[in-house]
Design goal:
Length: about 180
């Protein structure tokens, strides 16, 4: 990661007006999260936002930066940016997945399910959203719904190990021989 930062920093010196280089450096700094990295990333992101306005990529980057800071209320602040992102671009699946991650951290399976459903309204049949909703349904003890969602995944991806595993897990827990054979 240090090599990538060095290369991007060098590129930034050469082409300081290149927003792609600045965006790449900001992402690396956010991921590395070393001493002083967040301040540098914040400065780069603020400059990009000033220059480009509220784009989906920058809103997602802002939410990621807020989460990476890990301060009090960071998840709540990130949720605001992600909700804004989804309103701007409803088919932006990574926004829903990030909101789902926040709901998982908060141990809120009902919220996970609700977010997945919202995401599926905008991006029907998205495998990760279907699987996430299915997993939430299992936690909420809606196993029939979970199995239906997993089967929907298997209709388009018959080898999907996560969907197969979910159905198998539900069948074993239910001790239903008929369900296990399907």
């Amino acid at each position: 990661m240090d090599d990538a930062e060095g290369a991007l920093s060098e590129g930034l010196e050469i082409a300081s007006m290149n927003s792609g280089v600045r965006f790449g450096l900001m992402r690396i700094l956010t991921q590395r999260n070393g001493p002083g990295d967040m301040a540098k990333a914040e400065k780069l992101l603020s400059g990009l936002e000033e220059e480009l306005g509220e784009t989906p990529d920058l809103m997602f980057a802002r939410a990621s930066l807020v989460i990476a800071k890990k301060d009090a209320g960071s998840l709540k602040k990130a949720r605001v940016f992600l909700d804004k992102l989804i309103k701007l671009e409803p088919a932006q699946v990574r926004g829903y997945l990030a909101l789902i991650q926040i709901a998982m951290v908060e141990n809120n399976p009902a919220e996970v399910r609700a977010i997945a459903i919202r995401g599926l309204e905008a991006s029907p049949n998205h495998t990760q959203l279907l699987l996430t909703q299915a997993q939430a349904e299992v936690i909420l003890k809606n196993t029939d719904a979970a199995v239906d969602l997993a089967r929907q995944i298997l209709n388009s991806s018959p080898e999907n190990a996560d969907a197969i595993g979910l159905i198998t897990s539900v069948a074993i827990r239910s001790k239903n021989q008929e369900a296990m054979s399907k």
